[in-house]
Specification:
The protein is of the alpha+beta class. 24% of the residues lie in helices and 32% in strands. It has a 5-stranded antiparallel sheet. The protein has a two-stranded antiparallel sheet with strand order 3-4. Strands 6-7 form a two-stranded antiparallel sheet.
Length: 130
């Protein structure tokens, strides 16, 4: 995966899956990701909606957007797009929760069309580079 393919991946995700948000209940899309540096530190993953196309630069995701901080494409080690994601929130009306679906088969077709290599299962679409 080079920077061009990563940018194409994120542009396609934004187009097919819709607007991302830091809060799952507000988000049309959801993913988790980690970087090579993070794998060496604590093997943790971040979770969030996908960045908007306006947040994508030639070689990185911009600071201060949906993902909150910049991520250089070459540092991305694993991105997971679940077929479904759970959300919950506490509002003045009480606790609310639900599940949202993502069209990962449609996303896979769109990614094939732009030449982005990935893996698709019933549960997830992923790009795994480690």
């Amino acid at each position: 995966m080079d920077d061009v393919l990563w940018k194409s991946f994120f542009d396609t995700c934004a187009r097919v899956l819709g607007m991302g948000s830091r809060n799952a209940w507000q988000s049309s899309s959801w993913c988790s990701w980690t970087t090579f540096d993070r794998l060496q530190c604590d093997a943790g993953y971040w979770t969030c909606g996908f960045p908007d196309s306006s947040e994508l630069r030639a070689s990185y995701i911009a600071d201060g957007g949906t993902w909150g901080q910049p991520f250089e494409y070459h540092q991305l080690a694993h991105v997971i797009v679940p077929a479904h994601f759970y959300w919950d929130r506490v509002s003045p009306d009480g606790f609310q929760s639900g599940k949202k679906s993502q069209p990962i088969a449609e996303l896979s077709r769109a990614l094939h069309d732009v030449g982005v290599p990935h893996r698709l299962t019933e549960a997830v679409l992923e790009i795994k580079l480690y």
